[in-house]
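ok trying this again, last paste got cut off
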Amino acid sequence: MTTALGIALTACGGNGSGKESGAPEEGATKSESSKATPAARVEWSPALTMGQPAPGLYEPKNSEGGKFQVTATKIVKGTRKQLEEGHYVDADRNLEGGTPYYVYVTYTLKEGKPSVVNSDLNAQAVVLDENGEPAAERPVIHSGFDEGGCPVDKVYMSWDIGEQRTMCSIYIAKANAKQPARLAWSADATTADDYKKGASWGWTTR
């Protein structure tokens, strides 16, 4: 009886070579192959030049109707003095030592009729670095009523087809921010990759 039991245990223990069965190796192979491959890096779409309209028409959400041709026309680099005169630092101490930029974008109504006549269309514009991340932001106070900044916005009663308006907004790059690379405009982008695929202008200042 003892001899029979010893034979049975030897059979269950394998060939005695110390090597494990192939099952775990198979599992490891499956585990390695199931690892997610890194997503392909999204490259920027070709940069538009200042004054060149973005392809297609855009319907900003905050205008509640109307399709526009959108054209970034110029970016003016401001001064530290303007940053102080506009009281931007008073509203946000994190902006101290930053660089102000005055961004001008022209909108031409091509189709439809906006329900909101004086909407802030520049709210759709963003300043991005080479990676598609924010490089400058509009401050809480963004009217730009400092000397040499954005002009005071006009008040309009309606939009007509073919009418063109240029809007100016201030964007401020914090002292430790990366260098702006693009000015992008989108009615629905939410990620860096979304902005990279859409319309954007090469960063050029005056």
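PB: full thing came through this time. The two ends are 99 Å apart (CA to CA).
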